[in-house]
Structures are given as structure tokens and as C-alpha cells.
Amino acid sequence: MWLLALNWSLRFFFASALDHEEQPAQRSAAELEELVIVIQSQRNSYHARRSHQRKEEILHEAANLGQGLPVVLLLHELSDYEGNWSILPVLPLLSAIYGASASWLIFVEEETTVVLHVLLRVLKRYSVQEEWFLGHRLHDNKPSIIHHYYFSEDTTSFGYPDPAAGWALSAPLYQRLAERIQNENLKSDFTIDLTHEIALFIWEEGRGPKMTAVPEFCAETRDNCATTFSTYLPNCGDPVSKNNLFVAVKTCEKFHSVRVPVVKSTWEKDAAYLEYYSDVSDDSIPTIYLGVPNTERGHCGKTFAIMRRFLSEAVPNVDWLLIVDDDTLISLPRLRQLLQCYNPKEAVSLGEKYGYGLMQNGYSYTTGGGGIVLSRTAVSRLLSSGCSCYSDDAPDDMVLGRCLTSIGVPITHSPLFHQAQPDDYSGTRISPKHSISFHKHWNIDPLAVYRNWLQDLELRDEL
Questions:
Q1: Helices 376-384 and 396-406 meet at what angle, rounded to 10?
Q2: Cβ atoms 351, 330 nearer than 8 A
Q3: What is the pLDDT of residue 29?
Q4: For the segment 300-314, what is each residue's pLDDT rounded down to a tens digit?
Q5: Share in percent of the chain as helix, strand, coil (round to 5)
Q6: Which of 69, 157, 246, 457 gives 20 to 30 Å between its CA and that of 348?
């Protein structure tokens, strides 16, 4: 499917490519016309709007410089294939259209500010005839489950770019990567942490280049930055009312005395409407049994039963549904602040986005441990589509992803949600002030994690 999308997109972009094909393939130094800046946009209307604003800001700055215009692309508009967010599937398209004219591909997020005159000065330090992979270097503080425990003997030995600061590929490198993608039989696998996996793909077990750290690629605003970043937690106005969010906690009897007390002593107090769904009814909590037995693997049957209950008259009629595990730690005030940016009349699926088999026409999904947020519109469309679990113990988050993809509902990513624990992420990448959720109680004090990372008394209110 993504190859078909590539062919369609090549035809769609052919006219614009004509403006570039007579320019030299390489020069000794980068000029604005030789830059292709790809904003890692998303299809959701809020993110699409923000990305268009960022594109206009970049082009406006370029016009003021009077040195020509870069090409600025929105990732979600390049083709119909939703898996392009993982970048690798779209490289052949970008190489085919811009390979003769673009010395650099630069990838930025929608909240990344690009300072073009500094960026040009930085890129002139690197020969455009050589393979370069540039960015703001991150490394793991310890072996991490989200990185499959790569480089466990020395986690500092491997660097990957902070997506907030942007990253760049020189023409010889992105052209070679595009050929690899087209000609090699790449394995089908999970996409979990995008820039780490891209760095691994480029490094190619030591056959390719490692990322070069560039100090002017900045995740925080300071002097002499080519890129800067604001925040992943935007201010779109007053938070969504707590009376407009329904929280569903999945649990089971063996965790009633272990995990549920953590929820009750931390974030439950911030919920107006919350129910616990278990394999037994327990009036002391209380829990609700939906007729789906507990399973040791996935919980698809239980999740679909929760969604049916959400649309029924048994619970309040609200716009937003949050589904979490009993070992998820979450800040509901921050979540309600984030939800103000989204239109509940749209079909919205929000959380930490993972992908499966995206190089082979796979699909994306919101990973369950960090929390799955669905608008009532999305739940209604999903259930009315007839899509369902193939078994009660199927992985609920992946089945939801396949169902939503099949009916054209985009999976919207927010890096504020976390499937793993704080220590599994680079310390410079996550912020105690700008995180919404973490997952798992293994070998940690969950009360301390909540207190240090998620408790935000000034955001709590009675709306």
C-alpha cells in the first residue's frame, strides 16, 4: 500500500519537482533553496493547523532573508499512507522528488522553531558530498526496555537525536537510505521510539554513520540556536471540565489490594467520573464485572465492553473516554489541559503512538499502558463499524489501532504519554512538568514517581 501511495505522490508532486531538477545535485555549501524541511505533522485538525502555521513562519523568515526559499513540507500531506510518521517509508518518495536538488533533509516537530540564518551557517560546516546525520544528541542513562536494551554494556556509546530539536540528513545519506528501503527485504517490527530506531537503521550495525552532535540544534531556547523548542503541553485555553471526562480503569482481582490503592491515593481524586472494571464485583472498591473473564495476555474483550458501556445510559454522557491500566500513573489536570486543544466532535484517538510492520503496510496504535484517550465520536464510529476482537485476550491497543486505521481515524501521537517508567527515557527528553502518564510499578515506589513527576497542585481545580 505504501508503495502505491509513493507512486501516487510522485505524480502529485511532479510539477513542483520540475522547479528543482535542473539545479546541481551537489554544491560545496548549502543554500536555502537546497533545504527540504519536513514538519512532522499529523492529520488531526489541531496538529494540521499548527503545522501549517509553522510552515508559514519558516517561509516568512526565508522571505525576509531574501536568499531564496526552502521547500517546506507537511509530513501528513505527502501521501495517504498513515505510516509515514515513522519517516523511513517516506524517504524513497522524498529522494525521488528532491534528490537532484536538496542537499539536506531536515525533520522538525510542529512546535520546533527554525532559525534559518543560523541553520545555514551550521550546515556549511559539513560537506554536502559526504554522509551526515546531525542532531541534538541523546543517550540512554541505563539499559531501556523501550530500546530493547540495546548497548546495555555502555548506554552512553550510542546517540540518537532529540526530535524536539530537529535532525538532518545529507543528500548522499538519505539517497542511500532510500535505496536500502526500496531494495532490501526489511523485517516487520515494532516502531516504539522513532528517532532511536532511525539512528539504529542509519548506523546499520556499524556499517553506517553514527549521529553527529550539533550544539546549535537546541531543545531549549538559548543564544546561537538553529532550532529551538517550546513545549509539548500547549496552552489552548481553560482545561476541559473534569465533568467531561470519563475514566475507565482496567484491573483484576489479584491486583485489587496492590494496585488499586495506589490509584486511590494518587490521581483518583482528580476524576469526576471513574469506574474500575474487573473480573469480579468487589463492593469495597467498588469494581464492575462486565461479563468478560480475566485474561493473562491482552484485554480486548474487556476494552470493547468498556466502550459499549461508555455509549450506554449507564454512565454520564461526556465527550472524552480515558482507558488506563491499574498500574498507570497519570496527571488528569494536565490531560484536561491538553484535551482543550482537540475538538471532541472529531474522531480522536490520542496517546503514545506505536507502529507495527510500518515498512510492510502495517498499522499504528495508541499503546495502552500510557493511557488511551478517545472522543465519543471515535468510540461511536469504531463500534458502529462492526470491527471487533478476534478473541477476548487479543491485545486491545493493537486491535483498536487496526480498527481505527481501517475506518480512517488517525492515531494522534503525544509524547507526554509514556508506556514505560521515567528512568526508561533520556533524562533530558522528558520533564516532570510536561509529562502526563507513566506505566508499570516494577522495582519503583509508584507513590514517589507520582509525587515527583505528575503531582501538580496548582493545576488541580473543581471545574
A1: 80
A2: no
A3: 55
A4: 999 999 999 999 999
A5: 40, 15, 45
A6: 457
